[in-house]
Every structure is written in structure tokens, then in C-alpha cells.
């Protein structure tokens, strides 16, 4: 109801305003709110495109991370790839979902630029962004814990660092984790921006 | 400005309404919006108290997790505690901060019940809740990755499962991770609720 009302006011602004059918806000205040919200929506779109880039980079970097060591025994060849560790498999799946969602949300963000006073799309974005934030953060944090272990090992649990052997692989997965944390920071800004846009009339 | 205006309208509702000093919203619509927002705020307070309980339980369970095995050699006693693993230390610190924030946010939530039309506190809550959500999720996910490793080990990286020896310790840390994920779910609901409360007038 809220949504359709706002749409009506915005579309029929010029004709209805004179007939006194939009008494909630004055025309000037309405235009100012629309300008503010449109500015926020443009910034939202820019951030969203950047976060798509970061999430995609994280997915691809992790998904293509593998290394085969140049020596092998009769029975065994030393090889590391992301799917040796379940956490990294989760990382690739979660970041793929996040990338997909962020790409799909681009048209909704464009709708928010075209119709800045409509609140439905904005509310949809903030809800889905919050869920994506959780998904991305969990993937990034879980992988960061494992990457830390791969670099440093843990003497108490008797887990040895594997990065002395698999240097290229470790650089790859570290890069993917850094990219995913950049995506997390951008999505936090997206949620904050949506909250700011919802606040004003 | 937005905030002070809303306060004035709410406090002086009965006297000013008759003089036509609150032209933005009709009295009935205003009262309905206040009722809706007050309901949301009460639900917010209940969720917040639950999330304090969950976060506190997670912190204490992890912080007190230690186990000494009943056998030892001449040089070595087998002992596990949460600060053997940096991830669990991060977990305890992050969950303590989250618990502290959630306790401090309770008065703000009470203000939102008393003054449902004021938007300042609500916006403050949604911003801080989003940051707390990220902190809690990263602690929960990183610890979950390590707990999985402690239970199952990883043959590719040659990391052995330590839960065969330290059963009590592993039950403790698994419980803490479950409690932290419950806290994460509750904080997601808090953010969603705040967004819903911001949407309506």
C-alpha cells in the first residue's frame, strides 16, 4: 500500500499536486527528498558494481588455485587444490552465490535510481544484502582461519604449516581471502546506504 | 532536524493537533504508525535480550573450555585450552565485544519503545547491529572451520583430528560455535526488524 501510494505521488506529481491530492509533503520537499534518494541510489549502484568485481575476483582466484609440486615418489604426487579443504569448497560456493545475487540486484538498484521515492525495492535490497553479508563474511572468515593455519601451523594441535611447500597455492588462497574481505566491506556500506535511504521521506 | 521534529509532534500530539500544527500526518495515521513501530520495538527488545543470552553463553563456554588428559610423559602433559588456537582467542574477544554492545544497546531499544516515531536511535541501532553482525559471523565461521578440522582432520594437508583425545574440549567448543550461530541468526532478525521499522512513517 505504502509502495503504490508513493508510486502514484511520484508519477502523477505535476498534475495531482495542483488538485491538492498529495497533501503529505510539499512539492519542494518532495523534490528535495527525491534528489537525496537518487544520489544515494547512484552511489549504491557504483558500490554494487565494485562488490561484484571483488566477489568475482575472489571466486575465480580461489576456484583456480592449484599447484603440483615438481617432485613425486612412486606412489604419490604432491598436489594441492582448493577442493582438498572443505572450507575452500564452501568459499567458492558461497562467493559464487554472492556474486550471482549481486549481479541480479543491479537492475533493482537501477529501479531505485529511476524511482527514488518507491520503498519496496529498497527494502528488498536491504533484506537480501543483509543475508548476503552474512554469507560472504562467513566464507571469508572461515577461509581466513584455514589460510592462517596453512601459513603458521599450530604446534599445540600438531598441525604443520603447508605453505613452505605450496607457496604459489598459498599466495593464491591468501589473495582470494583478501578480495572476499573487500567484498564484505563494500556490502556493509551497501546495507548502511540502504538504511540511510530508507530513513528520509 | 528530522529527529527533533518527530519528537515535538509526538510529545505535543493532543494539544497541537487541534491547532493544525502537525499537518504532515493525520492524527489517526500518526497513532497507527506509532502503534506499529512500538510493536516492532517491543519485539526488538525481546530479540535483543535473547541475543545477549546466546552471545554470553558462547563467550563463557569457549572461554572456560580446557581439558587436561589423565596421562603424561616425563616432559610433557597433554592439555588443550581455547588459547592454544588463535582463532578461538579471536572468538572469545569478538563475542565479548558483541555481548557488551548488545547489553549497551538495550537502553536504546527501550527508548525506541517509549518514543516510537523518533528515527535517530533506530538508525543508530541498524548501523551498529550491522557491524556487530559482521563481527559475530566472522568469529562463528572461523571457529566453525577450526572445529570441523578438529573433528575430522584433513588427510591432504596431513592435519590429524584432535577430538579423539580431547573429547570434552571438543564438545565444549562445538557448543560455543552453535551458540554463536544462534546469536548470528538473532542479530540478522534485529537488522531486518529495524529496516521494517524505518520503512513506515
Automatic annotation (TrEMBL), chains A, B:
Residues spanning the membrane: 45-65, 85-111, 123-150, 176-198
Annotated Gene Ontology cellular component terms: plasma membrane
Domain Casparian strip membrane protein as annotated: residue spans: 38-186
Superkingdom, taxonomy of origin: Eukaryota
Keyword Ribonucleoprotein in record: no
Main location: membrane
UniProt membrane topology term: Multi-pass membrane protein
Xref: Pfam families: CASP_dom
InterPro entries: CASP/CASPL, CASP_dom, CASPL
Compartment(s): Cell membrane
Keywords (A to Z) from UniProt: Cell membrane, Membrane, Transmembrane, Transmembrane helix
UniProt cross-references to NCBIfam families, sorted A to Z: A_tha_TIGR01569 (TIGR01569)
Subunit structure: Homodimer and heterodimers.
Family: Belongs to the Casparian strip membrane proteins (CASP) family.
Name the record gives this protein: CASP-like protein
